[in-house]
Request: fold
Amino acid sequence: QGDWIKIGDRVEGLVEHITWRPTNIRTRDSDYQIFPNSLVAKEVIVNFRQPSRVHAIRLLIGTSYDDPPDLVKKVLLEIVATVSEVLRSPEPIVYLKAYADFSINYELKCFLEDYDQRPVIEDKIMHRVWYAFRRAGIEIPFPIQTVYEHRIPYAELLRRKMPVDVDRVLANVPIFTAIAKEDLARLAA
Reply:
């Protein structure tokens, strides 16, 4: 009781009550989910408070290809230093994760003790990212698609068009194979 857990892919919440038959979980929405212990025993359980209350969170953040990675990493570390709920030890770290289609993607990994406050802490960090990036001139990109349109004048299209050998096309159609050449030529005309 009192542990913040995740039961398989089903639910994440605070263990409120355990009896010999069910386990009662209070979710982040303050709803109770009651699980038969026979079901709980078959699932993988992640305990976010054991063996230690220290837990890592990972936030994915994308920036423009114009923004130097050293600057991005420096600003992200400065941001988490201003969030009191983020632990100083273990130290936060920023990884450059991918050169994606529209952005360079970073993973900010930091640690906290109050796992039940994770959404609030993530919000504080992400909220500050926007302002700090603006001050530092770092762009948060959005997907852009460039479409190139090449128009050919109709007269040029007609000039490029390959002449069609109608006699040959009709001769290759199975229902016309039995027709005499003279009749096929009249049909082609």
